[in-house]
Write a structure and sequence with these properties.
This protein has about 290 residues and is an alpha/beta fold. It is about 50% helix and about 10% strand. It contains eleven helices and eight strands. The protein has helices at about 35-50, 55-60, 75-80, 80-100, 150-160, 160-180, 185-195, 200-225, 230-240, 245-250, 265-280, and strands at about 10-15, 25-30, 30-35, 115, 120-125, 125-130, 135-140, 145. It is globular, with a radius of gyration of 19 Å. It starts with 11 loop residues before the first strand and ends in an 11-residue tail after the last helix. It binds zinc ion. Zinc ion (ZN) binds near residues 210, 244 and 245. Zinc ion binds near residues 172, 176, 207, 210 and 245.
């Protein structure tokens, strides 16, 4: 991905130094201290690759000293995440600028969402959430919530190809914001209330549409030469492996196919590709079928 650090977005709300709600602290793992985000990522990697990634970090001789259970949130920690903050800012601004362009063509105005950076736990208008929930969008306050610990680990394991996977996650969440602005989210909410039995299929359609919207944004980055073929491949893998929904499923343990509420990996990549191929909202009518 071709991007340059350009400062912190006005739409980023940095709450990393304030402990949200219960003040959840990270967890110790075989003598190492990893964040909750890291824990979840290791869990997913182990699951996706059928390999125990926990073993990689736990076999560290000489680390038998007690862990500083809750190391204070230091300025150094913030500094180490600086590049991540700049990256999130770049992607967030780019995604939102793209929608600011596209929505008026549909006769709608775009309103910026905020992105809240947090550690461990956070309070949102949708309730309190922990990092283990994964990145999420709250329609009630129009904010995306993200713990950077999640991206740190992802970047370390996947290197550069992971960059667009991160971008995809943000674009998917902003996709949910676009659904709110278009009134789709509210419509689905009402349909769910009046017909609870249809709740799951509706949820699938909502998620697949957010993937498609992420693809619409990816199309515009392709046109501007910000991404290339390999980025697209990494996004397609990300669509299948690291969507917010997978994370939530991992966290809640709802991984059985019977309780599939977010669409299969194939559906998710298919809809991302639909958006990417066409670059238009009209390609994203996941409710039509
Ligand atoms: Zn989603």
């Amino acid at each position: 991905m071709d991007w340059k650090p350009g400062g912190v977005s006005d739409d980023v709300e940095d709450r990393r130094s304030s402990t949200g709600g219960g003040g959840f602290s990270g967890m110790g793992m075989g003598g190492r201290h990893i964040g909750v985000g890291g824990f979840i990522v290791l869990l997913i990697l182990s699951w996706v690759f059928h390999r125990d990634f926990f073993a990689l970090i736990s076999g560290d001789p000489g680390s038998d000293q007690p862990i500083a259970a809750t190391s204070p949130r230091t300025a150094a920690q913030d500094a180490a995440e600086e590049k991540g903050v700049q990256f999130v800012s770049f992607v967030l601004d780019d995604v939102q600028a793209t929608w600011q362009n596209l929505l008026p063509q549909e006769g709608r105005q775009y309103r910026h969402a905020k992105l809240v950076l947090f550690r461990d736990a956070v309070d949102s208008a949708c309730g309190q959430a922990e990092s283990a929930t994964g990145p999420f969008y709250c329609p009630d306050d129009e904010k995306v919530y993200l713990d950077l610990g999640f991206f740190d680990e992802l970047r370390r394991r996947f290197g550069a190809p992971g960059e667009f996977a991160q971008a995809y996650v943000i674009a998917h969440e902003i996709g949910h914001h676009v659904q709110k602005l278009l009134g789709i989210e509210g419509q689905v909410r009402r349909m769910r209330a009046s017909n609870p039995a249809a709740s799951n299929p509706l949820s699938v359609r909502l998620e697949l549409q957010a993937d498609c919207f992420a693809g619409v944004w990816a199309k515009s980055t392709e046109q501007r030469k910000i991404i290339d073929e390999s980025d697209v491949e990494s996004a397609l893998r990300a669509a299948a492996a690291v969507g917010d929904d997978r994370l939530q499923k991992m966290a809640t343990g709802h991984v059985s196919p019977e309780s599939f509420t977010h669409g299969s990996s194939r559906e998710r990549t298919q809809w991302f590709q639909n958006g990417l191929t066409s670059g238009h909202l009209s390609a994203c009518d996941t409710f039509a079928r």
